[in-house]
Write a structure and sequence with these properties.
single chain, four-stranded antiparallel sheet, alpha+beta, 3 helices, 10 strands, six-stranded antiparallel sheet, 23% strand
Length: 242
């Protein structure tokens, strides 16, 4: 029976892919040095969030519009152009949508610090640009987590602990890691769970810039059923005080 099975041709179809985009953007060394100093100045004396084991994230300290800072406006413009490209290559009709950069914040991680697993329910597309790293991941790799692992068939098997699924098999992957290096851009769906591994380099500060984007209909068009109208067409609702 085994001899017969080996002669059969079984074709596997990897359906419903999650699309993550990466690009290594060139950043001028002098520009990079200035950006790093600006971020250190913005962080001030704070080093965590606030637990000592958690990286410092600017959005929790009032630094959530970094794209408006003159040192980071050109970088934000480059990221926006690439997000448009990401949308086009994932099948969106760009003539029917508007793209909004909702917030932008820095994340600084010292030795032993991490960022826990989470996603961004307030956004649609997220991106991160790294200003540090050597490509080896010692400063803490970006971890992208599969929300559902249908191929494990029996829930929990892919976790391991002596189960029957081979480790790191491409069709039962629950985690994908990206090692930071200066200029590396990663774009991914905001609902995708992600985390940051521990910074194990005692001499390096892990530095990245995060971006959150929202899609709406264009201002001059009627929105699709599940696409929010353009913010220009919204109306604020004043709360009546008793």
């Amino acid at each position: 029976m085994l001899e017969i099975c080996r002669s059969l041709v079984v074709e596997l179809h990897a359906l419903f892919p999650t699309v993550v985009a990466t690009e290594r953007m060139a950043i001028d060394p002098l520009t990079l040095a200035g950006q790093m100093q600006t971020l250190l100045n913005l962080r001030g004396e704070a080093i965590s969030n606030p637990d000592e084991g958690c990286a410092w994230t600017g959005d929790l300290h009032g630094i959530w519009q970094l794209h408006q800072h003159p040192d980071f406006q050109p970088l934000a413009d480059e990221v926006m152009a690439r997000v448009w490209m990401y949308l086009e290559r994932t099948g969106f009709d760009l003539d029917q949508i508007a793209l909004h950069l909702q917030r932008c914040w820095p994340v600084l991680s010292t030795t032993g610090q991490v960022v826990g697993r989470h996603h961004h329910p307030n956004a649609h597309v997220s991106a991160v640009v790294y200003l540090s790293g050597d490509g080896q991941g010692q400063e803490g790799a970006l971890c992208l987590h599969a929300r559902h692992q249908l191929n494990e068939l029996v829930p929990g098997l892919a976790v391991g602990h002596g189960g029957p699924i081979r480790d790191h098999h491409p069709h039962n992957q629950g985690l994908w890691t990206v090692n930071p290096e200066p200029g590396l851009l990663v774009i991914f769906p905001s609902r995708l769970d992600h985390s940051v591994g521990q910074n194990n380099d005692e001499e390096s500060l892990r530095v990245s810039i995060s971006f959150d984007f929202v899609l709406t209909a264009q201002a001059a068009s009627a929105p699709a059923e599940f696409l929010a109208p353009h913010p220009h067409q919204w109306q604020g609702c004043e709360r009546q005080l008793s």
